[in-house]
Amino acid sequence: MPGVGALLCRGGAALREAGIENARMEARWLLAHVLNTTPETLLRDPQAPVGEDAAARFEAALTRRAAREPLAFITGRAGFWTLELEVAPHTLIPRADTETLVEAVMARGVAPRRVLDLGTGTGALLLAVLSEFPEATGLGVDLKPEAAALAARNAARLGLSHRAAFLAGDWATALDARFDLVLSNPPYIAAGEIPALMPEVARHEPTSALDGGADGLDAYRALATALPGLLAPGGVAVLELGQGQDGAVGALARAAGLSVAGLRADLSGIPRAILLESGQKAIGGDAHRG
């Protein structure tokens, strides 16, 4: 019966040979997932025996990761903001860069009451914002029914079902409401660039969540058209940007009658979130302030 340490050595070597960065750490995460424990617990007793069934499941997980399937899809979980979320191959894996949008919302110092998340996927953005603003309610929309169902499961696990609803639809076309805050991490990769992305992304994450058309801006064109009818007076839209897209997206927004209220950079200094406002002012000045 193999021990924890031996399995981790073998697993780290296999992943390193497959070109995985941080191979030993990922092997530890996979074994912890198989054993339903934490990576820290594994390190306390490297001689602890691992049953044959668990060892076989670990080998199967290593095979999947060596084929460059994302770690999050193997474990079925990913962290975002302060939350742990269920993920699945029909949704984009939440990324740290996207947390920049939540930071931008927090930095405004304005508590939204009604929140809309377009292309919600796992529900990451909406649920993170709702976790920070206890008076807010929100709606997440995704084209894929299975994504909307997964986001609803995440809301239930996090105790946010009473404030979050999810529906499957073609973004804003089925909506007849206005919101204080509109969030979106739209597809923004130029179609021709997708095959050159990391194998984990190009081969395994949903193309529909990546493909922004020939120039990467198709989703922003749709958003610029929809946002004036979705934003309440005094409301703001916070959209994720691809690298170098802030100028083009700002121009699309201004052409639609929106104003650029600011940009926020990610930890690499890349403008990652753009804040857009409609020309309408809030009734009474503070109608949407917390």
Automatic annotation (TrEMBL):
InterPro entries cross-referenced by the UniProt entry: DNA_methylase_N6_adenine_CS (IPR002052), HemK-like (IPR004556), N5-glutamine_MTase (IPR050320), PrmC_N (IPR040758), RF_methyltr_PrmC (IPR019874), SAM-dependent_MTases_sf (IPR029063), Small_mtfrase_dom (IPR007848)
GO MF terms, alphabetically ordered: nucleic acid binding; peptide chain release factor N(5)-glutamine methyltransferase activity
Coiled-coil boundaries: none
Segments forming domain Methyltransferase small: 98-192
Catalytic activity: L-glutaminyl-[peptide chain release factor] + S-adenosyl-L-methionine = N(5)-methyl-L-glutaminyl-[peptide chain release factor] + S-adenosyl-L-homocysteine + H(+)
Family: Belongs to the protein N5-glutamine methyltransferase family. PrmC subfamily.
The name this protein goes by in its record: Release factor glutamine methyltransferase
